[in-house]
Amino acid sequence: MSLQVDLALERGDFRLSVNGALPERGVTILFGVSGAGKSSLLKAIAGLQPCRGLIRFDDRVWQDEHQALPAHRRPVGLMLQRPTLFPHLDVAGNLRFAARRSGATDGRWREVVALTELQPLMERGVAGLSGGEAQRVALARALLTEPDLLMLDEPLSALDAERRQALMAVIARVGERLPVLYVTHQLDEVMTLGDHLWWLDRGGLREQGPLAECLAGLHGPLAAGGQAAVVLRTRHRGYDERHHLLELTLGDAVLRLPAAGPRGDTPRLKVAARDVSLALSPVRDSSVLNILPATVDALRDLGHGQCLVRLRCADQWLLARVSTLSRDRLGLRPGLALHAQIKAAALV
Amino acid sequence: MNVSPADWQALWVSVRLALISTGLLLVICTPLAWWLARRRRPGQALLESVLALPLVLPPTVLGFYLLLWLGPDGPGGLLARLWGGHSLAFTFTGLVIGSVIYSLPFVLQPLKNAFAAIDRDTLDMAATLGAPPWDRFRNVVMPLARPGYLSAAVLGFAHTLGEFGVVLMIGGSLAGETRVASVALYEHVEVGDYARAHHLALVLVVLSVAMLWGLFRWQRRPGALP
C-alpha cells in the first residue's frame, strides 16, 4: 500500500469520512456522483483542505492528530479540471516553477517534456493555449514536482474525444510508475484507465478494490446507475484479415471482435450486462460469435422484471441482465453451469 | 518658464514627500491589503471604514487631529523627544506621517482589489508545486498583482503631491522643509503674484498628466496582465 487515509471533514451540512488505501502503483478511479465529495477528498489529501484524521504515505506521516504537513511539503502532483496555469509565466516558466522547487534533473525535464509532447509550445504564453495543450502543461508541471502520488480531478472533462484519448494514454503510462488517484464519472475513462476503484457514495468509501472486481459487484457503482458493465482482461491472439476480426483469448476460450487492425498485447474489453444473454446448452446455430462457458455466481432482482446475474467465466467476472421470466424458465441459481452469449463488446 | 529656485525647492519637497510616502504606503499596505482581501473576519467592516476615513473627511479636520497628535503634548511629541526634538508638527517627518495616513486608502484599495482577484486555485496549485507561503506571495501573488501595484503607486504619489489642507495644518511653510508646491502656489496667489502661480501650477499639471498618461498607456499595453 502507498497512500493510507482515515480522515473526516465537515463543510456545512456535508460530512465526509473516508478510510482507504491506494496500491503501490496503477490508476485508482475515484468514482462518485457530483457532490459526493471527490474534490474535497483530493484537496484534503493534498493538504489544501483542513481535515481530521490520519494520512500517511508508505511510512511517512503526512497528517495525524499532532501535526499536519503543509501542502507545499507533501510530494503530491495535482491537476484540476481547469488547468490553473500561472498567467504571468510562459509554458517553460510554468514548468520551471515546479522543476526548480523539486530539483528535477535535466534528464527528468526532457523525459516529461517528451512524454507530454510540449517541446513546440515551450515559448508560448499560456493565454493562447487550447484546452488540450493547457492540460498537457498542467500534467507536465505536476510530474516535474517529482510526486510520490499524482491526483487528477476530472482532467479531461473539457477536452474533445481525440485529445482525451491521447492524454489518457499518457496518464496510463504515468500510472505504471506511480499511484494515481483519478476523479471521473466518465465511463470510458473508468474502463480505459482504471486498475482500481474507490467508490465514494454518501460521504464515505462504499467500495474499494480492483476495478474488475468492483464493477462486477451486483451492487456496484454502475449497477446502481443501471449501466452495469464489466471489464475483461484478454490476451491478443491474432487478427483475421479476411473477416476483419480481432482474436483474443480469455482463459481457454477465444473471443472474436470486429476491429480495424491488431491492438496491444493485453486489450481490455468492456462488456455491458445488457449485451450478455444466457443459454443452458451451447448454441451452434447463432450469429453471435462469442459464446463462453460460465457458471452462475449470484443473482440480484433489479425490479421491473429485470434481474442481474453475476457469472464466473475463465477466472473473470461477467454480468448479464435478463428478465425475471428467463431466470425462472432457465432455473438460474448459483452454481448452475451455462453458456453466456456476448452480443457486443467494445475495446477500451 | 519662470520658476524661481524657491519654487523648484518647494516642488522638490513635494516630490520627495510623495516618493517617501508612497514607498512607505506600499510596504504598509501590502500585508494589510492581503489580510483584508483573503477572507472576511469579525470587525473587518469597522477597520475598513476607519482606514477609508481620509476619503471622506475634510483634510483640515484630519490635519487638525494630526496637529494635536504630532504636537509636543501628543504621542508624536513624545516620539520626537527620543531624538531630542519636542514636536513632529512642522517637520518633514510629521508631513510624511500625515501623508501616509491621508493617502492610505488610495494605495490600499487598488492592492486589495488586485489581491482579491487572484484565483484561490492558482495559489493552491502553487502550494502543491512546492512553494511555501512567502515564495507563493513573492512569485505568484506579486506578479499577478502588478497592475494593482502600479495603480496604487501612481494614485498614492499623485494624491500626496496634491495634498494641501493637511500640510497647511501640520507643516506650515518652512522653506526646504515643509513648504510643498501646493502651499507655495497658495502663497503666490495670496500676495497677488499670479504669474509665478501660473508657472508653478503648470508644472504640477504637466507632472500629473504625465503620470496618469504613463499609467493608462501601461495598462493598455498588449502584453499587460488583466
TrEMBL record, chain B:
It is a multi-pass membrane protein. It is found in: Cell inner membrane; Cell membrane. The chain crosses the membrane at residues 12-37, 49-68, 88-108, 148-175, 195-216. This is Molybdenum transport system permease. Gene3D superfamilies: MetI-like. PROSITE patterns: ABC_TM1 (PS50928). Residues 11-213 form the ABC transmembrane type-1 domain. It comes from the Bacteria. Part of the binding-protein-dependent transport system for molybdenum; probably responsible for the translocation of the substrate across the membrane. Belongs to the binding-protein-dependent transport system permease family. CysTW subfamily. Its main location: membrane. It holds the Pfam family BPD_transp_1. Keywords: Cell inner membrane, Cell membrane, Membrane, Molybdenum, Transmembrane, Transmembrane helix, Transport.
